[in-house]
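Action item from last week, closing it out:
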Amino acid sequence: MNRRGALVTGLTAGAGLLLTGTGRAAEPPGTEPPAPGPTRAPGPTAVPGPTGLPGPAGAGPLAEGVRAPFVFRGFEWGARPPSSPPKIWDRRPIRILVHHTAGANGGDFSVPAAHRMARGIQSYHMDRQGWLDSGQHFTISRGGHVMEGRLWSLRELNEGRRVVEGAHSPGQNVIAIGIENEGTYIDAEPTPMLWDSLRASCAYICAQYGIRPTELYGHRDYRNTICPGDRLYGMLPRLRDEVAGLLGVRLSAREGRKAGWPLLREGDAGPLVEAAQYLLRDAGTLRGRPDGRFDDRTVTAVRDFQAVHRADDVNGLLGGESWPELARTVTAGSEGDAARAVALLAEHRKVESVPDVVDHPVWQRLLGTGGSPVPSGTDPAGVADR
């Protein structure tokens, strides 16, 4: 069976999208705004990314056999019309960002509950955030029901060549597909239904766009945020591995894990906090001696640093947005607080020798838990983030 005509076993049943053999959504007449025409957004005119048959190169040898998850389109869950047409970019995304909604971990796993949740997110994003539509491309409920977030995201995914501009993470709204997962996953794990749908959705997105299963990240990898929660973030190596299995790719332990930027917050303590304090003092926002305690003094220093560097959220959380700016390049023979931070981390990690140039990948290895570096990369110019 052609993968575009199949449904993932065990996912949502009921009214929604069944993909046809052409890869286009079967649309009842008059129920959804017309799809965009040939107009292009500012930016690249070519479609970068892997090509080839039977499936996009890079996703894996079994990409052609990956089944499409059942997805409710916006008009089926009661979406409002966007305040303006979403922008569509003539390029493929290169990664997936996993989010949580930071809402309640409720026990109503029904389709109506999922649709209410999607409407609530859209209203918040449009009425409180001032965005034109839901910020994320897709939403998954705790019951495992998958829904289109921003209008036309599903259609463009099915075609596999263009991407709708989202608003789920500044700097990642074109180059990354954003998936919101209902609930808060700081101390709790997602439900099995949500997990199965997340895995299936990621595999299909990878197959359609030619994204390697290693390129699944948490929101915190690129912003100063707790999202997608400590527990769900800690499950990302498992998600990469399971998605890789569906795509026929074998990942090494290093590929499945990421030596990313740690999320530090008030109440934390230890060598990573002390290293951050040295870097904050090096940047001129921390006064006094580093002591390894993320206290009020450190929160203020982080906030001041974020304000100077015009962070998206000046919130005192030290995450994937501020670390790359704080962890400046240090060369062999350097002196000062940044060099002291390198020495401290090297001793903590029991590293016998440090490269002559400590750049972001080296910082990530010293700060992280091992694995491949989290890549940089931001949206092209012209993204409105709304």
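Closing note: Confidence is low (pLDDT under 50) at residues 1-31, 38-47, 49-54.
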